[in-house]
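Exercise 3.2. Students should predict the tertiary structure of the chain below and write it as C-alpha cells, then compare their answer with the key that follows.

Predict this chain's 3D structure.
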Amino acid sequence: MLSDLGFTPARSGRLVPMGRAEAGTEGAGATYPFAASLADCPRHGRLSKRVSETTSPTGRAALTIRGLRKLFSVATTPLFGDSTHPMGILTRWLYLRLLGLTALVAIGSFWAQAGGLIGHDGIWPAAQTMEFLRQGDTPFLAAPTLLWISSSDAMLHALGALGVLMAVALAAGVAPRVMLLGLWLVWRSLVTVGGPFLAFQWDILLLETLLFSVPYAPAGLLPRLRAETEAPAWSRYLLIWLCVKLTFESGLVKVLGQDPSWIPELTALHYHWWTQPLPTWTSFVANAMPLWLDQALCFVTLVLELAVPLFAFGPRRARLIAGVGILLLQSGLALAGNYSYFNLLAAVLCIPLLDDDALAALKPRAWRVPQLSPKPSRERPWQRRAGWALVGAVALLGTLAFTHRWIGVDVPSPAQWVLEQLDGLDLINGYGAFATMTKTRPEILIEGSADGIAWKPYEFKWKPGRLDARPKWVAPWQPRLDWQMWFAALGECRGNPWLLSTQRHLLLGTPSVLALFGDDPFEGAPPKQVRTLLYQYRFAPLGEKGVWWSRTFERPYCPALMLDAEGRLVAADQP
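Answer key:
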C-alpha cells in the first residue's frame, strides 16, 4: 500500500521516496515527503535543498564539512593548486628530445678534441690507461668500457661517431630506451679512459641521467605520441630526485663548507664573476655591480638552491614553483659563465617537474598542441612496488654517501658494500660546486723559445691570456684543456702530470695537441724549450677601453723544460 503512494521503507525504518538514496544530504532531504515534492519543482528546488540541509543533523554536518572544505581550499589553492594530475606525454616528449641534444653536444664536442686529449698522440693516451688497467687485473665492472676490445684511435672515433648517431636518434624519438642505454655505454666507455679531461661533475651527471631515464622513456622502435602510455609515476620521481639532489646539494655544500663569503657575509658572487673558470663578457659587466646587489643575488642563489628544490615533492603547483625556480637558477648561471653543457643538462632535468598543461601555457600562441588521450600505465602491482623501492634505495644510498663525505656520518656496512659495488658505474654520486669560493685568479701562461732567450706565448682559444682578449661565450661546448688549466693553476706543477705531457707535445710539435691551442707561434717548427709562468689576473676597470684584464707576475710554475737526446722531458738548465 505504501509503495502505491510512492514510498518505500528505508533500512532505518523511515519512509523515503522511491528512487532516492538515504545516505548523506540526499537521504536527509528525502526523509520528508514535502521536501521531495518541492525538489521536483524548479521554483522551489533551492528552498527544498535549504530546508533539507537545516532540518536534520546529517544536513547540518554536511554544511559544516562543506564550509571547512571551502575554507581549506581558499587557504591552500595559491600554493598547491587544484587536485588534478595533468598528463605528462608532451613533457616526456620534450624531455627526451632535449636530452638527446644535450648528449649530442657532450659527445660531439669531446669527440672533436679526443685525438689531442686521449688519442695515441694525445696528452693522456687511452691506450696507456687501458694498459695500466690490464696490468692490474681490473675487473670489467670496476672500469666498464668498450675499449677493452681495442684502445686504438679508430675505436675512439668509432665510439664518438656511434654516440653522435645515437644522440640524434634519441632526439628524433627512435627507440628511446635502446638509445639511452647505448649512449650510457658509449659515454661510460669514454669517461673510464678520459682521465682528468672527463672528470667533471656534469660528465658523471650525464651518466646518471641517461640510465635513470630508461624507465621513463616509452618502449618500442618508433613510439607514436598519440598512442603512448603514461610513464610510471616512480620513473618520473626518479628523475625529480636527481634534479633535487643536484640543486639542493649544491646549496648544502656552501653551508657545510663554512666559507663566510657565502654565509653570513653573502659576498661570494663579488669574487665569482672574475675568478670562475671561463668568464664571459657579461661576467665583466656583472663585476661592476655594487656590493649590495651582489649580496642580494647571493641570497637569492641560496634560496633557489636550498629552499625551492624541496617544493618538488609537493602537489602540482608546488612542483611547478620548484621547476621554474631551478630553471631561473640555471639561466642565471648560464648568462654569466661558461659551464659547458651543465646548465643545459640541469635545465632538462627540470622538465619532469612540469606537465602538459604548464607547457601549453608557456608555448607561443602560434604553436598547436595536439589533443592526446594517453593510455594508463601497463605496469603490474609488483612492478610498481619494485619501482618505488628503487627510488627509495637510490635516495637512501645517495643521502648516506653525501652525509658521509661532508658530515662524517658512518655508512652502515651493507650500504657501504652496495656503494662499493656501484662505484665503477657512477650510479650514486654527490654534487656541489664552489663550496669554498676562490678569492684569487691564478693563470698559467705557456711560452716557448728557440734559443732560451726570446719567448713566445701559446695562446689558448678561450681561457684568459692576452689582456685585450675579450671573454667570450663558448658553452655548451667545453674546451677541455682550457678548463683543466684553471684547475692546474690552483695547484702545483708536480700534481698535474698531464700538464707536463702537454709541454712535451709542444716540444715535439704534435699536431693533434697544437690543435687544442689558439695558434702555433712557431708555425710548425717546434721550440727548443718551453716554460710555464704563474700570473694573478683580475678584470680591468670598467672604463678602460680595449683592455679586459690586468695581471701581475707571481712566479714560475714549472721549470723551463726541454727534450734530451732520447726524447725525455728534462729541466732546461740540466745537461
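Discussion points: Confidence is low (pLDDT under 50) at residues 1-51. The chain has 21 helices and seven strands.
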